[in-house]
Design a protein that fits this description.
By secondary structure, the protein is mainly beta. It has four domains: 44 residues, no CATH class; 51 residues; 98 residues, Sandwich (Immunoglobulin-like); 139 residues, Immunoglobulin-like. 6% of the residues lie in helices and 45% in strands. Strands 7, 8, 9, 11, 12 and 14 form a six-stranded antiparallel beta sheet that branches. Strand 11 and strand 12 form a beta hairpin. 24% of the residues are buried.
């Protein structure tokens, strides 16, 4: 009898020892082979210890934490973040808990799409990003999208939506933008975007102004000694250029100058212009004019604007330019130049109206 009891004791001890080093199942008799601890329940969860950490490097509240240790920080101590955190060996890192709701937005704003880097070069491989703003995000996560091929004039580029998480409210979708464009900026690449039931066409062309934003330029040149028909752009750099249209002026004697809009694009542009001058109350209207690549457009009605200080006038031009079929932009351009002492001081500005 003693032998039998002794045998059962050692058998139980061996069995207990094996169980200590085996998998543990709570709520299941068949724990998954990949886990050391498998907790199964249909109506209960796991509650982690709640602590009030003093900082992201706190090793006092939880003494000597091991890498991988999880706790729930209450946010009532010095570390204000509330949620699950993990010790990585040097600091407490939060575990990103994103919304479980299906992603949704209220509006997709393709008209404000932007690209970076800001310029295309024909025949040169491009590798960058395109961002498209949205509003009404609900914090949901979304998967990467399928490649979208550019259409319209500037073909050869592909945009691919990157996976991400929506902001609560307004945010931006990010696309990789790669390929070899057919034309230089600002000839736009157009992409038909479909996202969460919203569709629009995004046109990216390089450096553009947002609605209501402006560019300004101030410079000076000698009052005398400059040959007639000399362009300011041949003397100075940094003149305003928007959608490939450069604001410029042509020297025309010491009394007058000629405002110019020059098409620096590699393709022709369809432009409409209406201008007026403050000094002589003149206006000019020139609608739907095709301006060839490298050509210029007259701005002033009689093409003669005073430098003279007493008669220096502001020339204002409302300019409408067609980017591609169905895509237009409206700019207001201003020239104001006058002689001050031995210099002719030149002011230029452009603001996007729509």
């Amino acid at each position: 009898m003693k032998k039998r009891i002794l045998f059962l004791f050692f058998f139980s001890l061996c069995l207990s020892t094996n169980l200590i080093y085996a998998q543990i199942g709570i709520g299941t008799e068949t724990p998954d082979h990949s886990s050391i601890l498998d907790i199964s329940s249909t109506n209960q969860g796991v509650l982690f210890p709640k602590v009030a950490l003093l900082s992201d490097k706190d090793q006092v509240t939880v003494a000597n934490p091991q890498e991988g240790l999880l706790v729930y920080n209450t946010g009532t101590g010095g570390l204000k973040y509330q949620g699950l955190v993990c010790w990585d060996g040097t600091s407490w890192k939060k575990i990103n808990l994103t919304a479980t709701a299906s992603p949704a937005i209220s509006n997709l704003q393709c008209e404000n799409a932007k690209m970076s880097p800001a310029l295309f070069k024909a025949g040169v491989p491009y590798n960058g990003t395109m961002t498209v703003p949205y509003s009404g995000g609900n914090g949901g996560s979304y998967l990467a999208g399928s490649p979208i091929i550019s259409n319209g004039y500037n073909t050869g580029l592909t945009a691919t939506l990157q996976a991400g998480t929506l902001q609560y409210g307004s945010g931006e979708l990010t696309f990789t933008l790669t390929g070899t464009p057919l034309y230089d900026s600002p000839v736009p690449a157009m992409f038909n975007i479909n996202f969460l039931g919203h569709s629009c066409s995004a046109a990216v062309s390089g450096v553009t102004l947002g609605v209501g934003l402006s560019l300004t330029f101030i410079t000076s040149i000698p009052a005398t000694g400059i040959a007639d028909k000399t362009l300011l752009s041949s003397l100075k750099t940094g003149l305003p250029v928007i959608d490939g249209l450069r604001m410029d002026l042509e020297y025309n004697t010491t009394t007058y100058y000629r405002p110019r809009i020059i098409n620096t694009n590699s393709t022709s542009q369809l432009i409409s212009l209406q201008s007026f001058a403050t000094q002589v109350n003149e206006y000019r209207s020139n609608l739907n004019q095709t301006v060839l690549a490298g050509a210029s457009m007259q701005v002033d009605n009689n093409d003669a604007v005073y430098w003279t200080t007493s008669a220096a006038e502001v020339i204002t031009a409302n300019v409408q330019v067609q980017i591609v079929s169905g895509v237009w932009r409206w700019y207001e351009m201003k020239w104001w130049a006058m002689q001050i002492g031995t210099e002719k001081v030149i002011f230029m500005s452009v603001i996007r109206k729509a």
